[in-house]
Design goal:
By secondary structure, the chain is mostly helical. It has helices spanning 9-16, 26-178, 184-236, 278-293, 297-300, 306-316; strands at 321-322, 335-336. It folds into 2 domains: 9-87 and 276-336, no CATH class; 106-236. The radius of gyration is 75 Å and the shape is rod-shaped.
């Protein structure tokens, strides 16, 4: 009968199959038992091996998942630090570029102001030169006017002295003529001296008028020459410069919009492939049942077919109903009575 406390695995399996080692041919029973036991042990070892491989695969999966999480965490940390550094570099470069633009603007503005100051100085010098030239022209014209007027005055003075001398000569000649004996000769002599004095006075007046007209022409020439010199001086004077508009000061541009980096998620680790732990047991018990089915248990039990019928039932149902009080092997599937 089946004994749950028995330590003999073969006896337990035979009892479970409804067979007992009573009056069986020792050689046949031994080979059948060895074959059945080997099959069952092979199934048990196969199940344990599959379970061990499953545990290793599961452990490797967890290790890979842990590494994937660690890698994702490191990637997120790196991306966050890089994002912060990129932003800081952007603001640093933006501020540097703005300060550089302001310095360049100040330099350009100072250059423009300096050039305008130089132009103003050249313009002031040009105005000064023009004013000096105009003053020189006025002085030169005044000297020319004075010289011409002095020459005209000399001519008039000379003419007055000439007229006074002629008058004296006339009076002397008339006095001399009056001392002549009376008659036609004295009259003719007086008339001749009067005519000569009149002719000399006319010549003197004409010469004086000609000199005055020439002096007037000279005055007009001096005025025209001064006007031309003034025009030339004013034409050479620089045009008053206009102060240029200030260079626009640079402005700080708008900030760039930053997109935070997308968080990295752990890489997908496919589930560990699990081997069936029941398949080896099923195969082992099936092989054991096949080995036991090959023994003529009816002859061994003196023609009793109970055992054969029970074994046949066991072969037909690979998972028969276990006797009361039997504990199935781990990983096996049996119906507990």
């Amino acid at each position: 009968m089946f004994n749950p406390k028995s330590n003999n695995l073969l006896d337990d399996q035979l009892a479970f199959s409804g067979l007992e080692m009573n009056a069986i041919d020792p050689l046949t029973a031994t080979f059948a038992g060895i074959s059945a036991g080997s099959s069952i042990l092979g199934g048990i070892f196969g199940a344990k091996k599959a379970s061990s491989q499953n545990a290793k695969a599961k452990k490797a999966q967890k290790k890979q998942q842990k590494l994937a999480k660690k890698q994702a965490k490191a990637t997120n940390k790196y991306n966050a630090e890089k994002f912060a550094i990129d932003k800081q570099n952007y603001y640093n470069n933006k501020l540097f570029q703005y300060k550089t633009a302001v310095k360049q603007w100040a330099y350009n503005q100072s250059i423009q102001d300096f050039e305008y100051f130089n132009v103003l100085q050249r313009y002031a010098k040009s105005v000064e030169n023009t004013e000096n030239q105009l003053m020189f022209n006025s002085i030169a014209a005044a000297d020319a006017y004075a010289a011409e007027q002095s020459a005209l005055d000399d001519i008039r003075t000379e003419d007055a002295f000439n007229k006074q001398g002629a008058l004296i000569d006339r009076l002397q000649q008339e006095g001399q003529a009056a001392l002549l004996p009376g008659g036609v000769s004295r009259t003719k002599a007086i008339q001749s001296r009067v005519a000569a004095a009149g002719r000399n006075a006319a010549i003197s007046d004409a010469s004086l008028a000609s000199s005055v007209e020439q002096s007037q022409r000279n005055m007009r020439a001096i005025a025209l020459q001064k006007y031309g010199s003034d025009m030339q001086a004013r034409a050479s004077m620089m045009i008053k410069p206009i102060k240029p508009m200030n260079i626009p000061m640079p402005e700080m541009g708008p900030d760039m919009i930053f997109m935070p980096p997308m968080k990295a998620t752990p890489a997908y680790i496919p589930p560990a492939q699990q081997q069936s732990t029941l398949a080896p047991l099923i195969s082992g018990f099936s092989s054991a049942a096949t080995s036991l089915a090959g023994v003529d248990w009816g002859s061994a039990f003196g023609g009793s077919g109970g055992g054969v019928s029970n074994l046949t039932t066991s072969a037909g149902n690979m998972f028969p109903t276990a006797p009361s009080g039997y504990t199935p092997l781990p990983g096996s599937t049996y119906n507990i009575a």
